[in-house]
What we know:
The longest helix has 26 residues, at about 210-235. The chain has helices at about 85-100, 125-145, 175-180, 210-235; strands at about 15-20, 25-30, 35-45, 60-65, 110-120, 160-165, 170-175, 185-190, 195-205. It has four helices and nine strands, in the order E-E-E-E-H-E-H-E-E-H-E-E-H. Helix 1 (about 85-100) crosses helix 2 and helix 2 (about 125-145) runs parallel beside helix 4. The N and C termini lie far apart (about 35 Å). The chain has a five-stranded mixed sheet with strand order 1-2-3-5-4. A four-stranded antiparallel sheet has the order 7-6-8-9, with helices on both faces. It is globular. It has a single domain (about 15-235), classed as GHMP Kinase, N-terminal domain (Ribosomal Protein S5, domain 2, 2-Layer Sandwich). With about 240 residues, the protein is an alpha+beta fold. The chain is about 30% helix and about 30% strand. It catalyses: tRNA(n+1) + phosphate = tRNA(n) + a ribonucleoside 5'-diphosphate.
Amino acid sequence: MRPSRRAPDQMRPVSLERGVARYAEGSCLVKFGETHVLVAATLEDKMPMWLKGQGRGWITAEYGMLPRATHERTRREASTGRPSGRTQEIQRLVGRALRAVVDLPLMGERQITIDCDVLQADGGTRTAAITGAWVALHDCFNWMKARSMISRIPLKDHVAAVSCGIHDGVPVLDLDYLEDSNAHTDANFVLTGAGGIVEIQGTAEKEPFSEAELLALMALARTGIGELVALQKQAVA
Protein backbone atom coordinates (compact mmCIF):
# COMPACT_ATOMS: atom_id res chain seq x y z
CA MET A 1 0.00 0.00 0.00
CA ARG A 2 1.28 3.47 -0.92
CA PRO A 3 1.69 5.98 1.94
CA SER A 4 -1.21 7.95 0.44
CA ARG A 5 -3.28 4.73 0.19
CA ARG A 6 -3.71 5.31 -3.56
CA ALA A 7 -3.69 2.50 -6.09
CA PRO A 8 -0.44 2.21 -8.11
CA ASP A 9 -2.11 3.76 -11.18
CA GLN A 10 -4.04 6.45 -9.28
CA MET A 11 -3.28 10.15 -9.62
CA ARG A 12 -3.63 12.60 -6.78
CA PRO A 13 -6.69 14.89 -7.09
CA VAL A 14 -5.87 17.38 -9.87
CA SER A 15 -7.50 20.75 -10.54
CA LEU A 16 -6.85 23.48 -13.11
CA GLU A 17 -8.32 26.90 -12.30
CA ARG A 18 -8.06 29.52 -15.04
CA GLY A 19 -7.92 33.29 -14.82
CA VAL A 20 -6.51 33.56 -11.30
CA ALA A 21 -3.99 36.34 -12.06
CA ARG A 22 -5.98 39.45 -12.95
CA TYR A 23 -3.37 41.24 -15.02
CA ALA A 24 -1.77 38.32 -16.87
CA GLU A 25 -2.76 37.50 -20.46
CA GLY A 26 -3.25 33.90 -19.30
CA SER A 27 -3.03 32.17 -15.93
CA CYS A 28 -3.77 28.93 -14.14
CA LEU A 29 -3.64 27.70 -10.56
CA VAL A 30 -2.77 24.01 -10.87
CA LYS A 31 -3.02 21.56 -8.00
CA PHE A 32 -1.63 18.04 -7.92
CA GLY A 33 -2.82 17.02 -4.47
CA GLU A 34 -0.95 19.22 -1.99
CA THR A 35 1.39 20.60 -4.68
CA HIS A 36 0.07 23.99 -5.79
CA VAL A 37 1.64 26.06 -8.58
CA LEU A 38 0.54 29.45 -9.89
CA VAL A 39 1.32 29.85 -13.60
CA ALA A 40 1.06 33.17 -15.44
CA ALA A 41 1.67 33.88 -19.13
CA THR A 42 2.95 37.31 -20.15
CA LEU A 43 3.00 38.55 -23.74
CA GLU A 44 5.97 40.73 -24.66
CA ASP A 45 6.94 42.46 -27.89
CA LYS A 46 10.62 42.09 -27.14
CA MET A 47 12.51 39.12 -28.54
CA PRO A 48 15.88 37.53 -27.75
CA MET A 49 18.54 39.22 -29.87
CA TRP A 50 19.48 35.96 -31.59
CA LEU A 51 15.87 35.49 -32.80
CA LYS A 52 15.22 38.97 -34.19
CA GLY A 53 14.30 39.09 -37.87
CA GLN A 54 13.55 35.36 -38.13
CA GLY A 55 9.78 35.81 -38.35
CA ARG A 56 8.85 33.53 -35.47
CA GLY A 57 7.94 33.82 -31.84
CA TRP A 58 9.45 32.36 -28.70
CA ILE A 59 8.25 30.86 -25.44
CA THR A 60 10.42 30.90 -22.35
CA ALA A 61 9.78 30.07 -18.71
CA GLU A 62 10.84 31.07 -15.23
CA TYR A 63 10.35 28.89 -12.15
CA GLY A 64 10.56 29.69 -8.48
CA MET A 65 9.56 28.33 -5.11
CA LEU A 66 8.15 30.61 -2.44
CA PRO A 67 10.16 30.58 0.81
CA ARG A 68 7.45 28.71 2.75
CA ALA A 69 6.37 26.34 0.00
CA THR A 70 8.11 23.63 2.02
CA HIS A 71 8.30 22.62 5.70
CA GLU A 72 11.23 24.95 6.34
CA ARG A 73 11.90 28.36 4.88
CA THR A 74 14.18 28.44 1.87
CA ARG A 75 16.04 31.58 0.80
CA ARG A 76 14.71 33.44 -2.19
CA GLU A 77 17.08 32.80 -5.07
CA ALA A 78 17.03 36.50 -5.89
CA SER A 79 18.93 37.08 -2.64
CA THR A 80 21.74 34.79 -3.79
CA GLY A 81 22.17 36.61 -7.09
CA ARG A 82 21.56 33.64 -9.39
CA PRO A 83 19.12 30.74 -9.83
CA SER A 84 20.20 27.28 -8.72
CA GLY A 85 21.03 24.53 -11.20
CA ARG A 86 17.75 22.79 -10.36
CA THR A 87 15.77 25.96 -11.08
CA GLN A 88 17.51 26.50 -14.41
CA GLU A 89 16.88 22.89 -15.38
CA ILE A 90 13.14 23.16 -14.63
CA GLN A 91 12.80 26.49 -16.42
CA ARG A 92 14.35 25.04 -19.56
CA LEU A 93 12.19 21.93 -19.32
CA VAL A 94 8.97 23.97 -19.14
CA GLY A 95 10.02 26.09 -22.12
CA ARG A 96 10.99 23.05 -24.22
CA ALA A 97 7.73 21.28 -23.39
CA LEU A 98 5.58 24.19 -24.53
CA ARG A 99 7.59 25.01 -27.65
CA ALA A 100 7.19 21.40 -28.77
CA VAL A 101 3.45 21.94 -29.30
CA VAL A 102 3.42 25.52 -30.64
CA ASP A 103 3.63 26.72 -34.25
CA LEU A 104 6.12 29.49 -33.45
CA PRO A 105 5.89 31.35 -36.82
CA LEU A 106 2.15 31.90 -36.23
CA MET A 107 2.99 33.94 -33.14
CA GLY A 108 4.84 36.59 -35.11
CA GLU A 109 7.94 38.12 -33.56
CA ARG A 110 6.65 38.07 -30.00
CA GLN A 111 7.73 36.35 -26.82
CA ILE A 112 5.55 34.76 -24.15
CA THR A 113 7.11 34.31 -20.73
CA ILE A 114 5.62 31.63 -18.49
CA ASP A 115 6.12 32.27 -14.77
CA CYS A 116 5.71 29.20 -12.56
CA ASP A 117 5.62 30.00 -8.84
CA VAL A 118 5.34 27.10 -6.41
CA LEU A 119 3.01 28.10 -3.58
CA GLN A 120 3.13 24.71 -1.87
CA ALA A 121 5.35 21.73 -2.64
CA ASP A 122 4.60 18.05 -2.07
CA GLY A 123 6.45 16.46 -4.99
CA GLY A 124 5.93 16.86 -8.73
CA THR A 125 6.25 20.64 -8.92
CA ARG A 126 7.76 20.56 -12.43
CA THR A 127 5.09 18.22 -13.78
CA ALA A 128 2.32 20.34 -12.29
CA ALA A 129 3.95 23.48 -13.72
CA ILE A 130 4.05 22.07 -17.25
CA THR A 131 0.45 20.85 -17.10
CA GLY A 132 -0.85 24.20 -15.82
CA ALA A 133 1.40 26.16 -18.19
CA TRP A 134 -0.39 24.70 -21.21
CA VAL A 135 -3.67 26.14 -19.91
CA ALA A 136 -2.14 29.56 -19.21
CA LEU A 137 -0.54 29.59 -22.67
CA HIS A 138 -3.82 28.60 -24.32
CA ASP A 139 -5.56 31.55 -22.66
CA CYS A 140 -2.76 33.91 -23.65
CA PHE A 141 -3.23 32.87 -27.27
CA ASN A 142 -6.98 33.40 -26.91
CA TRP A 143 -6.25 36.91 -25.60
CA MET A 144 -4.09 37.59 -28.65
CA LYS A 145 -6.64 36.21 -31.09
CA ALA A 146 -9.42 38.33 -29.58
CA ARG A 147 -7.30 41.40 -30.40
CA SER A 148 -6.51 40.23 -33.96
CA MET A 149 -2.84 39.80 -33.14
CA ILE A 150 -2.93 36.24 -34.50
CA SER A 151 -5.33 34.65 -36.97
CA ARG A 152 -5.68 31.36 -35.09
CA ILE A 153 -4.46 29.61 -31.96
CA PRO A 154 -0.89 28.36 -32.67
CA LEU A 155 -1.19 25.27 -30.45
CA LYS A 156 -0.64 22.03 -32.36
CA ASP A 157 -1.46 19.70 -29.46
CA HIS A 158 -1.76 19.43 -25.71
CA VAL A 159 1.26 18.77 -23.53
CA ALA A 160 1.28 17.57 -19.94
CA ALA A 161 3.69 15.93 -17.53
CA VAL A 162 3.57 13.40 -14.73
CA SER A 163 6.03 11.65 -12.44
CA CYS A 164 6.33 7.90 -11.99
CA GLY A 165 8.61 5.80 -9.87
CA ILE A 166 9.33 2.47 -8.25
CA HIS A 167 8.38 2.58 -4.58
CA ASP A 168 8.85 -0.53 -2.42
CA GLY A 169 9.39 -2.51 -5.63
CA VAL A 170 6.11 -1.39 -7.22
CA PRO A 171 5.80 0.99 -10.21
CA VAL A 172 3.51 3.86 -9.15
CA LEU A 173 2.04 6.98 -10.77
CA ASP A 174 2.29 10.61 -9.63
CA LEU A 175 4.67 10.51 -6.67
CA ASP A 176 4.11 12.79 -3.70
CA TYR A 177 7.09 13.95 -1.65
CA LEU A 178 7.07 10.99 0.76
CA GLU A 179 7.22 8.53 -2.14
CA ASP A 180 9.62 10.63 -4.20
CA SER A 181 12.14 10.89 -1.37
CA ASN A 182 12.12 7.11 -0.85
CA ALA A 183 11.71 5.86 -4.42
CA HIS A 184 14.25 3.42 -5.87
CA THR A 185 13.61 4.92 -9.32
CA ASP A 186 12.20 8.35 -10.12
CA ALA A 187 11.13 9.51 -13.59
CA ASN A 188 9.32 12.46 -15.14
CA PHE A 189 7.45 12.02 -18.42
CA VAL A 190 6.43 14.89 -20.71
CA LEU A 191 4.02 13.72 -23.41
CA THR A 192 1.71 15.33 -25.95
CA GLY A 193 -2.00 14.70 -26.21
CA ALA A 194 -1.35 12.49 -29.24
CA GLY A 195 1.09 10.41 -27.21
CA GLY A 196 4.33 11.84 -28.59
CA ILE A 197 7.31 11.91 -26.26
CA VAL A 198 8.74 15.34 -25.53
CA GLU A 199 11.09 14.38 -22.73
CA ILE A 200 11.79 11.59 -20.24
CA GLN A 201 13.93 12.18 -17.17
CA GLY A 202 14.71 8.95 -15.32
CA THR A 203 17.12 8.23 -12.48
CA ALA A 204 17.98 5.14 -10.48
CA GLU A 205 18.26 6.38 -6.90
CA LYS A 206 19.49 3.01 -5.61
CA GLU A 207 19.61 -0.06 -7.82
CA PRO A 208 19.61 0.30 -11.65
CA PHE A 209 16.18 -0.25 -13.19
CA SER A 210 15.41 -2.62 -16.05
CA GLU A 211 13.92 -1.97 -19.47
CA ALA A 212 10.80 -3.83 -18.36
CA GLU A 213 10.45 -1.45 -15.40
CA LEU A 214 10.93 1.54 -17.68
CA LEU A 215 8.14 0.28 -19.93
CA ALA A 216 5.91 -0.24 -16.88
CA LEU A 217 6.55 3.36 -15.84
CA MET A 218 5.83 4.55 -19.37
CA ALA A 219 2.49 2.72 -19.36
CA LEU A 220 1.58 4.40 -16.07
CA ALA A 221 2.66 7.78 -17.45
CA ARG A 222 0.43 7.38 -20.50
CA THR A 223 -2.51 6.67 -18.19
CA GLY A 224 -1.78 9.77 -16.14
CA ILE A 225 -1.17 12.02 -19.13
CA GLY A 226 -4.47 10.88 -20.64
CA GLU A 227 -6.26 12.02 -17.50
CA LEU A 228 -4.40 15.33 -17.42
CA VAL A 229 -5.13 16.13 -21.06
CA ALA A 230 -8.82 15.39 -20.46
CA LEU A 231 -8.75 17.88 -17.57
CA GLN A 232 -7.01 20.46 -19.77
CA LYS A 233 -9.74 20.06 -22.38
CA GLN A 234 -12.43 20.53 -19.73
CA ALA A 235 -10.65 23.59 -18.33
CA VAL A 236 -10.52 25.48 -21.66
CA ALA A 237 -13.83 24.28 -23.08
